[in-house]
Amino acid sequence: MTELRRDPWGMLTEEDDVEIHALAARGWSVSAIARHSERDRKTIRKYLHGSRIGREPAPSCLEPYRAYIAARFDDDPHLLGSVLHRELAAAGFERAYTTMIGELRRLELRPVCKVCQHRRGRAVTIEIEHPPGEEIQWDWLELPETPWGQKAFVLVGALSHSGRFRGVFCEQMTFGQLAGAVHQVLVALGGTPRVWRTDRMATIVHPDTNRVTVDAAQMAKHYGVELAVCPPRRAQRKGVVERAIRYLTGSWWTSARITGPADAQRSLEDWCVRVADHRPRGHARDGDARTVAELAGAESLRSLPAGAYPAVISVEREASKSALVAYEGNKYSVDPAHAGRTVTVIARVGDPTLRIVSAAGELIGEHRVAIAGGGQTIRSDAHQRALEHAVLAAFTTDKTCSRKRNRAPSDASLAALAALRGLPAASPASASMDEYARLAQAC
After folding, report:
1. Is 425 domain-assigned?
2. DSSP H or E stretch at residue 98
3. What is residue 347's DSSP assignment?
4. Which of 20, 34, 154, 203 could bond to 175 as cystine, CB 3.0-4.6 Å?
5. 210 and 291 within one domain
């Protein structure tokens, strides 16, 4: 017979329990099983008859202090364990800190903070039913690290009923960028729902007054929609777009092979159509195997206005040495006098032209807007002629000026300096000692 395995505490293991029941079923007596297992007969009998009664746990070392502990947690449910242990030690508690923490957890004496539980996403929740075409949720995805070395922002809009979403890359989170991206997302989705739900982003809600901004209200009236702003610290209310952003980040962004914003935008649009729209959205347990695209077909979206809301986009740029300013994947010319200087590109959403102004507010360029990411270089004839003239005028075969030559102030410079100081243009030359001797001999 194989020896039964025993745990370190001398009690029967689950394997031992199974074997003694098997031996009893074969007709073995309690004494025979006890001799075989080298256990007491009372133990074997208890296991066979199922009359094992667990030992009553010893009273907790925190029992005398439970009233005080409850009062302290009423004061502050986040009270540090080290502070509580110090206070209990001053009241006569002699056990270690780890013992106290273990008893707090075993007895579940620390109350649950409902606010923190909700903010950490651990609170109970329920799915909200959204009728087709009722709501779209908006949120920003911030990308601090990109393959092209600059921070980027993606405005994501997700239909609450079907979960279909689209995103647009932006370089800033200004209202102008938001308005342009909103229109692109709605065009990609095929229309707009009745309600736009957002969080309390600064371009929608004024941080000082907690009221919807004038620009946001005008844009909502332009599209004929209602703005629904989530209450403070209630990100779960727009869970559809939150899940869409998590899915977009994990499924596409982390493995996308892209080189620039325009390339990223094309890749995102292709991935949304090819992958994201084919996700199963229905409940398989109910026999509903519809995809996001199939559910989106039932969305009764409203038609869009003729043009986007004409918000103003203003971004600063540094003109290159060839007097070109980069904007949305294209380059636009300025006068060569502003090469290497900081200028401002001003574009209105939906306007076919853009303007470039200097730091002083002077208009230095006006061009037609090229397709974003087209890689075009748009240079006016006047700027082309001015650039050619500036290049030819600066052309020379002379050597570079030496920095170690002696170049004392000229007579003209000294005369100008004297005029500034109010002195005569030239002072009389001083006579030498030889001259004085010659004049003395002549006398």
Report:
1. no
2. helix 97-107
3. E
4. 203
5. yes
Q: Write the single-letter amino acid at 334.
A: V
Count of structural domains, the chain: 3
| Stretches in the chain below the pLDDT threshold 50 | 1-10, 124, 126, 284
Give, in degrees to the nearest 5, the angle at Cα 334 between 332 and 338: 135
| Last residue of one domain, picked from the residues 265, 296, 327 | 296
Q: Specify the pLDDT at position 192.
A: 95
List pLDDT tens digits, range 129-140.
Answer: 778 889 999 999
d(CA 336, CA 334): 6
CA angle, corner 119, sides to 115 and 122, nearest 5? Answer: 95
Same domain (yes/no): 245, 344: no
Cα distance between residue 66 and residue 412, in whole Å: 97
Question: Is 413 among the domain residues?
Answer: no
Distance in angstroms (rounded) separating the CA atoms of residues 98 and 95: 8
Rounded distance, CA 81 to CA 102, Å? 11
Predicted pLDDT of residue 281: 77
Closest CA to 157 of 198, 96, 129: 198
CATH of the domain at 267: 3.30.420.10
| Torsion sign across C-alpha atoms 155, 168, 160, 306 | positive
Backbone φ and ψ of 240, nearest 5°: -65, -50
One domain, residues 355 and 254: no
- Picking from 296, 328, 348, the residue at the C-terminal end of a domain is 296
Gap between the Cα atoms of 149 and 24, Å rounded: 75
Task: Supply the DSSP string of 216-251, one letter for each residue.
Answer: HHHHHHHHT-EEEEPPTT-GGGGHHHHHHHHHHHHH
Rounded distance between C-alpha atoms, residue 196 and residue 134, angstroms: 9
Find the domain containing 79 and state its range.
63-111
pLDDT of residue 119: 58
Residue-wise pLDDT tens digits, 10-34 = 467 777 888 888 888 888 888 888 8
| CA 157 – CA 5 distance, rounded (Å) | 62
> DSSP for 154-194?
EEEEEETTT--EEEEEES--SHHHHHHHHHHHHHHHTSB-S
**Contact by Cβ (8 Å): 260, 148:** yes
Give the CATH number of the domain where residue 350 resides.
2.40.50
279 and 155 both lie in a single domain: yes
How far is it, in rounded angstroms, from Cα 441 to Cα 443?
5
Terminal Cα distance for the chain, rounded: 151
Is-contact 265 170, C-beta < 8 A? no
80 with 174, same domain: the answer is no
